[in-house]
Design a protein that fits this description.
Elements lengths: L4 E2 L10 H12 L10 H21 L5 E5 L2 H21 L7 E5 L5 H13 L4 E5 L9 H7 L3 E5 L13 H10 L5 E3 L20 E5 L10 E5 L25 H16 L6 H18 L4 E2 L10 E5 L5 H10 L2 E2 L15 H5 L4 H6 L1 E4 L6 H18 L15 E7 L2 E8 L4 E5 L6 H10 L3 E6 L8 H10 L11 E4 L5 E7 L2 E6 L2 E8 L2 E8 L20 H4 E2 L1 H10 L4 E4 L3 H6 L10 E2 L5 H11 L4 E4 L4 H12 L5 E4 L2 H4 L1
Parallel strand pairs: 1-11, 3-4, 3-5, 5-6, 15-16, 22-26, 23-24, 23-25, 25-26
Antiparallel strand pairs: 2-8, 7-8, 9-10, 10-12, 13-14, 14-15, 17-18, 18-19, 19-20, 20-21
The structure holds pyridoxal-5'-phosphate (PLP).
Length: 651
């Protein structure tokens, strides 16, 4: 497998070795509680205060509060609570303080969610208004100018986590000054630390949260700066630590680690210069442009952090790119890590008015200021390899099916359609193609130079919305059963209309389609499509009576080596797509694997049930696809189909 190249630093970063050592030293020897009055406590307190002093120097914050906490979400929470309590009280006392909270449209979700939560809980009664951004992702200062006199609180991040867009903080400060706005101002500085100069006490900023794990400190440590004189209400009360501003025994290992990072920032001998980082980005940008000539960058590079690139490639979804990059060992993401498991489009790109296709194709590549040239060069080479893999044709004959048609499952949200294709003759037929996948299916057909003979539906008298959409996207094909076919006989003697596909035929039997080879004019059934979405029926399959749970068919990473040793005859099947397989051939305890993408597993089911009945171990990246493959085979009667739980990621 490919060694990992981590390009997802905006989600989190590795821990600086000096930071890990500092944390270790605290845990091993300097474990005192800084509130204790004995020598061990005094040493811990001295360490905490030396880190705080360093932080003040690095952030340009000799004055104001600087408290350690668990991270930026807590810092944001504390800032929002502090501002809203003060505003609620001021409003209750009839003091003029504004009635609007302006929230940048591209803020991290922690900001609008905290505002809505505390506004409701405190009954502050403020109106939350989105401050829009322009197409470059920068705040609309004209809108701010209009609303600033009414603004009680303004929340604008220093740099965006998805696009890297750097806010015009000087411009915002100027507008607030020009309009004599009464607003408090929170600036989420999470992505700025170590990448942009900060001089907090000299600015008008009231609240600035920071997070250690975005800059080589561990997770669970952060800081909040509060301008001297700005309202403050503690979020956590108890033992009165941090001068009563944040109770709870301090995370001393985290503070020590953060201290090592801040120290390195102050010394200036560890992290790379802005110019060097711009050079790294330029090489990655050039590699992307070479690899994907149509690539579009979703934020203007001149306004973005030197460490973040957000791009879209026409014709490739974020998932397409992420899967292949991951197989190549390149860790990137589609957007913020918090929304990685959600399929909703990015609110950041939406707010910038990025066209839908670019939102659906967006990929974020981010690195940290420790980036090494040699690693950037390796990443560039892998990007080129990924582009070659992504250009591979998807409709290829299976090595197991000598001259039979291929069958691809077109799955969308539980519903399933099918694409039958004859690789030799470059013809294909779609059955129940999902409308939502019409564009992708059409691209697959056209890129392979296939002729779409028919797009059929098991309902709607032969042509449903999906069939029509597919023909429209492909610019070819007949939606519905074509005229002028041939005739096929069934075993029961009926003679029905059929279409030839290579050496096989598709027969129309009412709302059902039967596929197979004609032997002496009689159909030898291979697949039947009845619109049920379940795996099609193939001869020789017997339904499994016993219901199968996932636990019955999963092997974890610890058990798999033993299982392979006990089953030397087993067949390991990589159910990732052919593109992932091409860039990241599977290496599982020295076993090589046959690549049968999940969408093609049904096509091979009868082979594994009748011709080659060896035990099967399905593997994929995360275990999600392989367990579905195992479930399919088990439900068709294969007793020895297994999945590698957790996938290659854990193996
Ligand atoms: N703000 C921004 C801009 C971020 O990128 C993140 C992390 O993704 C956060 C806030 C939340 O930080 P934490 O994980 O420390 O709570």
């Amino acid at each position: 497998m490919n060694p990992e190249i981590y390009l997802d630093a905006n989600a989190t970063s590795p821990v600086l070795p000096a930071a890990a050592s500092a944390a270790m030293a605290v845990m091993a020897d300097g474990f005192g509680n800084p509130s204790s009055s004995h020598a061990a406590g005094l040493r811990a307190r001295a360490l905490r205060e030396s880190v705080r002093a360093c932080a003040r120097r690095v952030l340009g914050a000799p004055e104001g509060r600087l408290t350690f906490n668990s991270g930026a979400t807590e810092g944001i929470q504390t800032a929002v609570l502090s501002a809203l309590v003060a505003l609620r009280d001021a409003r209750a006392n009839g003091q003029p303080c504004g009635d609007l909270v302006l929230v940048g449209a591209t803020e991290h979700k922690a900001v609008p969610e905290s505002l809505a939560h505390w506004n409701r809980l405190l009954g502050a009664g403020l109106e939350l208004r989105t401050l829009p951004v322009d197409t470059d992702g920068r705040h609309r200062l004209d809108v701010l100018r209009e609303l600033a006199p009414r603004a009680a609180l303004v929340c604008t991040m220093a740099a965006n986590n998805e696009t890297g867009v750097v806010s015009d903080l000087d411009g915002i400060a100027q507008v607030l000054r020009d309009t004599a706005s009464p607003a408090l101002w929170m600036v989420d500085c999470v992505q700025a630390l170590g990448k942009l100069p900060l001089n907090l006490s000299a600015s008008r900023i009231d609240y600035a949260p920071f997070s250690g794990h975005k800059l080589y400190a561990p997770k669970g440590i952060g800081m909040l700066y509060v301008r001297a004189g700005a309202p403050f209400t503690p979020l956590m009360c108890g033992g009165g630590q941090e001068q009563g501003q944040r109770s709870g025994t301090e995370n001393m290992a985290g503070i020590a680690a953060l201290g090592a990072v801040l120290d390195a920032l102050e010394r200036g001998d560890t992290f790379r210069s802005h110019a060097a980082l711009l050079g790294c980005r330029a090489r990655l940008v050039a590699a992307l442009q070479d690899a994907f000539p149509g690539v579009v960058f979703n934020a203007p590079l001149e306004h973005a952090l030197p460490t973040t690139i957000n791009f879209s490639v026409p014709g490739l979804s974020s998932a397409d790119v992420l899967e292949v990059f991951d197989a190549a060992g390149l860790r990137v993401s589609a957007g913020s890590a918090c929304s990685a498991s959600k399929t909703a489009p990015s609110h950041v790109l939406d707010a910038m008015g990025v066209p839908d296709w670019r939102g659906a194709s967006a990929v974020r590549m981010s690195f940290g200021p420790l980036a090494e040239d040699v690693v950037i060069d390796q990443a560039c080479a892998r990007i080129a390899a990924c582009a070659r893999a992504l250009a591979l044709p998807l409709l290829q004959a299976s090595p197991l099916a000598a001259d039979g048609a291929g069958l691809v499952q077109l799955e969308h949200e539980g519903g399933a359609g099918w694409l039958l294709f004859d690789a030799a003759g470059r013809t294909c037929i779609a059955i129940d193609p999902p409308a939502a996948l019409a564009g992708r299916t059409a691209a697959m057909v056209n890129a392979g130079g296939y002729r779409l003979l028919a797009a059929l539906s098991t309902a709607h008298d032969g042509a449903g919305a999906g069939a029509l959409a597919l023909c429209a996207h492909a610019g070819q094909g007949i939606a519905g059963w074509p005229d002028g076919g041939i005739e096929a006989r069934l075993e029961d003697g009926r003679r029905l209309s059929a279409i030839a596909l290579g050496r096989e035929v598709l027969v129309r039997d009412g709302g059902k389609y039967l596929f197979g080879r004609l032997q002496d004019g009689v159909l030898a059934l291979r697949f039947a499509f009845d619109g049920s979405g379940a795996p099609v029926v193939t001869p020789g399959m017997t339904a499994q009576a016993r219901p199968q749970t996932e636990a019955d068919m999963e092997l974890d990473a610890g058990a798999v080596a033993r299982w392979l040793a006990e089953h030397p005859e087993a067949l390991v099947v990589d159910v990732r797509c052919a593109r992932e397989h091409a860039v990241g051939p599977l290496d599982l305890h020295g076993w090589s694997a046959l690549n049968v993408p999940l969408a093609r597993v049904t096509e091979h089911a009868s082979h594994w049930l009748d011709a080659d009945t060896r035990p099967l171990l399905f593997v994929c990246r995360s275990g999600a696809r392989s367990v579905r493959a195992a479930r399919t085979l088990r439900s068709l009667g294969h007793p020895r189909a297994w999945s590698l739980a957790g996938g290659l990621a854990l193996a």
